[in-house]
Please model this.
Amino acid sequence: MSQASTYDVLIVGAGVAGCALAHALANAPRTTPLRIALLERALAEPDRIVGELMQPGGVLALERLGLEHVLEGIDAAPVEGYCVYDAARGKVVKIPYPGGHRGRAFHHGRLIMNLRAAAKKARGVEVIEASVTDLVEDKSSRVVGVRASVKGEEEKRTFSASLVVVADGCNSNFRSAVLGPAGKSTTKSHFIGVVLEDAVLPIPNHGTVCLIKGSGPVLLYRISGNDTRILIDVKAPVPADLKGHILKNIAPQLPQCTQPSVKRAIENDRLRKMPNSWLPSTPQGGSSAKPGVVLIGDSWNMRHPLTGGGMTVALNDVASLVPLLGAVENLGNWTEVQGVLDRWFAARKPLASTINILSVALYDLFGADAPELEVLRTGCFKYFELGGECVNGPVSILSALAPSPALLTYHFFRVAFYAIWVMFTHPRAVPGNKTRLAVPSVAEYPFLLWRSIQVFYTACIVFGPLLWEEMIVHAMPSRIQLLMLLGGLYAGYTLLL
Ligand SMILES: Cc1cc2nc3c(=O)[nH]c(=O)nc-3n(C[C@H](O)[C@H](O)[C@H](O)COP(=O)(O)OP(=O)(O)OC[C@H]3O[C@@H](n4cnc5c(N)ncnc54)[C@H](O)[C@@H]3O)c2cc1C
Model:
């Protein structure tokens, strides 16, 4: 016989978002405390290659949520900034976080176990090992609960609640039921991961991003006293002989100091693979939303993991949602919840959109194979070499300390113009004699002028659609969007003339 269990809130998935949300909702000041069920399909320590570097903006969100202690006792490594290594030139540039801020890197499973323990301790939260199989709807198609296989029980159980929150991660089973076609994600590439033992990084305590010729970027960061994570971006189709491909084409391009540990790990260990997906967020409070259910975390919004922003976005989403949702006395009042979701969508935009756009734009530059993107990639590296605000601005954005799409747009297009300047003014290999370097001659200017137009156009088509998707498409009434599109087309037409 199936049992029924009734709560105020059901949360599907005890990962980063689900645990933080359960803990924060339980601690929200309310006249009547909430009864929350946190349903997780496997309570054993997860062993995954995701969510291992937390940006300073994520650490601050944990503090806002009263969860900073989850970073303790897990042998987490401090992260003081980034080091970008350009394999083509064998050069590194140091990009420290601003103002002495720090991120942390760790084994993902250890963080999750601490988060689950914190959720379990919170008043009114029940953590249940159960795999959710269906959303339960009433006659009006409002979600009123879930059905789940509970560990140790033969029959499926129905859980009911005023509100269901889905936080079941990147492979969400319920995304399309809630979002419809808007829930279709795009996979840009895969990350291949292994753990290196006793690896030496070019700059200690700095996440390393390696720009590789003919392949996507490679990330390296220490995740405990002895362990270093390597994530190698591989575009589709993933080669059948992956180990051979990495050992032959990628490992020799990595910084010399890391190569012995990389070769050892690739030869001896099992390679793990995860898709790198992109899913812009869509509003959940509008008339097309499914009543009674809300998505949060990767089930709702994903970006490229190159910039390690997923947990930061998820935690900041929780931190901005809970004060709004916690104030709703009757969570069964969907009209009131809808209003909250609209305000939440607007409140989260600056941080989430900045991180999301940056991750994909940077990936397009760093994973470049087209010649125009190659120019932008070189320009970006040289922009960082300028130091000062050319480092401080971008790293403040990356670390989620400066949640500003305007600042991101400013630096992105400064990089594009600087890349064009570099093309005209910096020495480069002379065609036909790769060992000789020379500044382009005046005779080459017509070609470079044409290339500049292509580079600028490429910058626009990399950045424009991301900005449109994240900032405009769901933020404005469609008539204003249409006017903006027509205005943009007209401006482009007059510029071309
Ligand atoms: C290769 C890779 C590397 C990444 N590296 C970083 C990084 O360094 N830094 C960073 O900030 N972000 C990183 N991310 C992104 C980050 O992992 C996610 O943004 C983050 O984990 C999202 O949290 P979540 O709670 O939404 O999902 P998850 O943390 O994935 O949690 C989902 C939970 O739901 C459970 N679940 C799923 N289905 C069900 C079901 N039917 N019933 C019950 N439970 C269920 C799962 O078991 C899991 O515990 C990376 C992503 C990838 C792909």
About this structure: The chain has a mean pLDDT of 92. The first strand starts at residue 4 and ends at 12.
